[in-house]
């Protein structure tokens, strides 16, 4: 999904136009959170415990410019640090840069759809089920 030569910006490189970009926290799309804990979209579009790295991978796949701010934290979820600034609109015309995700809510829903399909998620799920099957032993008849 990500090519090795793509670079992800960090907060030290933030310029004034990037300060106007939309901010996304993992809590916004976390299915383990309630609305009052920061979840921003319906549960059916959420994913369990998303990370900033997974969100960044999806943004790179969608070719959406973004900046990771690893030391910022959502006040309601300060244990899980990190946020992402995303450029959804053209600075000059205020038109969506990506027609597939014209606004922040659609982007969050798209992330919830694509994060479970990431290699890291698929491999982790398959290794968990494989180890669970290996741990079971057959019952001996006496």
Structural class: alpha+beta
Largest sheet strand order: 1-3-4-2
- Kindly state the percentage of residues in helix: 25-40%
Described by strand count, sense and barrel closure, the largest sheet is:
4 strands, mixed
What is the secondary structure topology, with strand pairs?
Elements: E1 9-10, E2 22-24, H1 52-61, E3 66-74, E4 77-86, H2 104-114, H3 119-135
Parallel strand pairs: 1-3
Antiparallel strand pairs: 2-4, 3-4
Q: In short, what is this structure?
A:
With 142 residues, the protein is of the alpha+beta class. Helix content is 27%, strand content 17%. A 4-stranded mixed beta sheet has the order 1-3-4-2, covered by helices on one side.
Throw out a few tags for this protein.
single chain; about 140 residues; alpha+beta; 4-stranded mixed beta sheet; about 25% helix; disordered N terminus
What does it look like?
There is one protein chain. With 142 residues, this protein is an alpha+beta fold. Helix content is 27%, strand content 17%. It has helices at 52-61, 104-114, 119-135, and strands at residues 9-10, 22-24, 66-74, 77-86. Strands 1-3-4-2 form a four-stranded mixed sheet, covered by helices on one side. Strand 3 (66-74) and strand 4 (77-86) form a beta hairpin. The radius of gyration is 18 Å and the shape is globular. The N and C termini lie far apart (53 Å). 25% of the residues are buried. Residues 1-5 have low confidence and may be disordered.
């Amino acid at each position: 999904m990500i090519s090795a030569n793509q670079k992800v910006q960090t907060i030290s490189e933030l310029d004034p136009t990037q300060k106007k970009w939309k901010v996304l926290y993992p809590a916004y799309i976390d299915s383990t959170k309630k609305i009052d804990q920061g979840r921003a979209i319906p549960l059916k579009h959420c994913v369990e415990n998303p990370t900033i790295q997974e969100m960044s991978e999806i943004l790179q796949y969608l070719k959406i410019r973004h900046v990771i701010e690893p030391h910022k934290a959502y006040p309601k979820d300060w244990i899980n640090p990190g946020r992402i600034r995303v450029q959804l609109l053209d600075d000059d015309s205020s038109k969506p840069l990506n027609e597939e995700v014209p606004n922040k809510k659609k982007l969050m829903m798209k992330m919830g759809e694509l994060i479970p399909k990431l290699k890291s998620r698929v491999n982790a799920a398959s290794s968990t089920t494989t180890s669970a099957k290996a741990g079971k032993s057959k019952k001996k008849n006496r």
